[in-house]
Amino acid sequence: MPPTETGSRQPARAELRGKKVVLPDEAEGNQVYIKGYYGKPLSGGGLELDLLEATYLAESGRIAISDAGSPYPMSELVSLATRDIPGFEIKYIVYRDVRQRGYVVKPGTPPLDFRVLPRGGAPGKAHSKYWIAAISERGIFDARALMSLMESTNRVRKVFLLAVVDEEGDLTYYKVKDVVPRGRLKFAQLKAPADGLILEDRVLVLEPSEAAALHASGFYGKMMGSGLQLSLLEAGYLSEEGALNLRDARTGKRLAWKKFRESAMEQQPDFELRMRVYRDLKSAGMLVKTGFKYGSHFRVYEGDPDSTHARYLVHAIPADYRSMWAEISRAVRLAHGVRKEILLGRVGETEIEYLRLERIRP
Amino acid sequence: MPPTETGSRQPARAELRGKKVVLPDEAEGNQVYIKGYYGKPLSGGGLELDLLEATYLAESGRIAISDAGSPYPMSELVSLATRDIPGFEIKYIVYRDVRQRGYVVKPGTPPLDFRVLPRGGAPGKAHSKYWIAAISERGIFDARALMSLMESTNRVRKVFLLAVVDEEGDLTYYKVKDVVPRGRLKFAQLKAPADGLILEDRVLVLEPSEAAALHASGFYGKMMGSGLQLSLLEAGYLSEEGALNLRDARTGKRLAWKKFRESAMEQQPDFELRMRVYRDLKSAGMLVKTGFKYGSHFRVYEGDPDSTHARYLVHAIPADYRSMWAEISRAVRLAHGVRKEILLGRVGETEIEYLRLERIRP
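^ inputs. structure came back:
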C-alpha cells in the first residue's frame, strides 16, 4: 500500500528500528505528532511510532520508511507487524477505521486494544471516551471474559465498545452495558389453584372460569376458545406459586412439581436456566413471553402488553457461556430490526446479570 | 372448553364410539357436514368425525358429545385425543387456525398432516391447495426429511407449508420451495496472477495495479487504501482459478492451494462446504459476499452490487443437516426483516439444492 494521498507535502522520513519506526527529524516528527497525536515524542527530539501507527501513516503516504538506507517495502512492514502483533490484521482494520472517523487512538491496557479520545481531544488533556476491544467475527464469544472487560471499563467510567470485523473487513460496533431491567406490573394473587392438563410441551386449563381468572391475573398463556394454553415455563412457575395443580393429560393423575420439572427438562434441556431468568424478570415487575419468533428465549414487557410493545428480547445464558460471535451478531441484528433491545441474562449461582448489546456508530 | 358460541342453534347430538365421534341423526349430520365439510357421511346416514374434528366442533359448541348416555367432558376428549394422536396439541392448534381462516381441512397422507382446500372448495370437487406439516418449535429441523416432503408435494403440484407452533401456541407458516438461483454477471479473466499475502483469516493484495485489476474483474474483496483485502473463500477461489499466488505473510513463501485449504479449514471448519456453495453460485452468474452481518453465510447479488441490493441470503448446509427449528426460524425472520429471500444451500455429493423458506399468511 504505497502513498495514495500525499497532498502537497512530502512524506516525512522514517526509519525502521527493531520493531518500531522512528522519525529522526524533529520538525517532521512534530508535524506528524501535532496532526493526530501519532506516536511518542522522543526526549532527544523526533518521534517513535508503533507498527500500527507506522502502517497507517505509510499507507496514507505521510511517512516513507527506510531500513539501513534502502526503502522498506509495505509488504515487509505488514509481514513484520503480522509476526509481531497477534491478530494484527483485525487490530489494524479497527485502528484504521477509528482514525478515519476522526478520533485520536492510543493503545489500551491489554486485553483491551484501544483507548479513543473524544473528537478534538489531546492526549494528557482529554480523558478517553471509548475503550475498544477488536474482535474477529470468527472469534469466540466468551461471556465471562466479556463481563470482566466490561467491569474494568465500568470502574473508570468509559464506554465499552466491541469492534467486530467480518471476513470482508467490514466493521460493526457494539456498545456493551450492564443493565437492571425493571417493570411496573403487579400480578394478582389467585384464591384457589386451577387445574392444568399437561400435554407434551404445553399445559391446558380447560375449566372456563379458572382459565379466565388465571389469564387475567398476569397475562398468562393464551386463550384458546374458553380454555387457556400455558407454556411449560408458565405452568411450572404457576405451580410453584401454588396457582396451578398439574395433571398428566394421559392418566389424569396429579404430578408433583419435581416430576413435572424432570419431564420439562426432557423436552427442553435448558428449562431450569430459562426458569431462573423468567422468575427474575417477573419478580422485577415485568411480563415475560416467549421470544421464539424473534429467535430469542423471551420478549419482555415493562407494562401492559395490550398497550405497549415488548422492550427487550432476553436470552438466558450460563455464566460461562461460549459461542461463535456470528451467533451473537445475528441476535443483535434481529433485535435491532424489530426495534427491541437485546439482553443476555447471564445466570450465576445466586444472581442474574443482564448485558445489553447495542449496535452503534461511534 | 364447553360451548362458547352456539348461535341460535342447539348443538348437534354426538356419541363417542371408540376413537371416533358419530352424529347418528341424519339431518344433524348433514347440517354439520354441509357447513364446512367436517367428517365423513356414513352410508347408512349420520356423520363420523375424527378426534381433531370432534374437538374443534365441541369447543365451538356445534356438537355435544355423550358417552353411553352421559355427557362426555371436554377434558376426557382432550385426554383421549392426546393418547391416540401423537403430537395432538400441535396438530390441533394448526387444524383450529386453518379452520378459523375459513379453509376446509382434511387429513393428509402421513407424514404430511393436512390437505387444505381453496376457500369455497368442496371435497371431491376442488383440488387441495396446500399440504401442511404441523411442527413444534421445539422439534428438530431435518433437511433430508424436509426435502423428501417437498418432493412429494412437488410431484402433485401443491404448495408445501410448514406450520410451526411456538410454546405460546402462536403459529408461523413457512412456504417451502426448491429454487434455482441465477444471476446475470460475467466475470473478467485475468492475464497474470496477483500476489496475495495470507494473514490469519484474510488475504492482502498490496501491489496497487494488481489489487485494482483483481477487484475490478469481479468485485472481489474490499479496497483498503490502494490495497485489496480478500476473504479466505475469495482467495481460495481465485487461487484455484489461477488468478492469485498465495504467500504466507510471516515467511513470504508461496503456499500451495492444498496447504492453504488445510490452514483455512483450521480457521473455518466448514470452509469446504461453504466453498462448494460459493463456487456454485458464482458459476451461475451471481456475486457472492459474506452474509455475516445478516447472520448467514452469504449475501448474493444477481447483478452489479453498486446498483442492486443482494436478493438472497444463503446458508450452506450438509445434505443431512439437523438443527433446532428455533434456529431456522431466526434466520428466516432476519432475512424477512431486511427484505431478502433466505435459501438453504443443501450440499450433496454432486449437486447443490436450494430450498427457499418464506413466511406467509395463508
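Residues 1-7 of chain A have pLDDT under 50 and may be disordered. Residues 106 and 295 of chain A are 38 Å apart (CA to CA).
thumbs up if we can close this ticket
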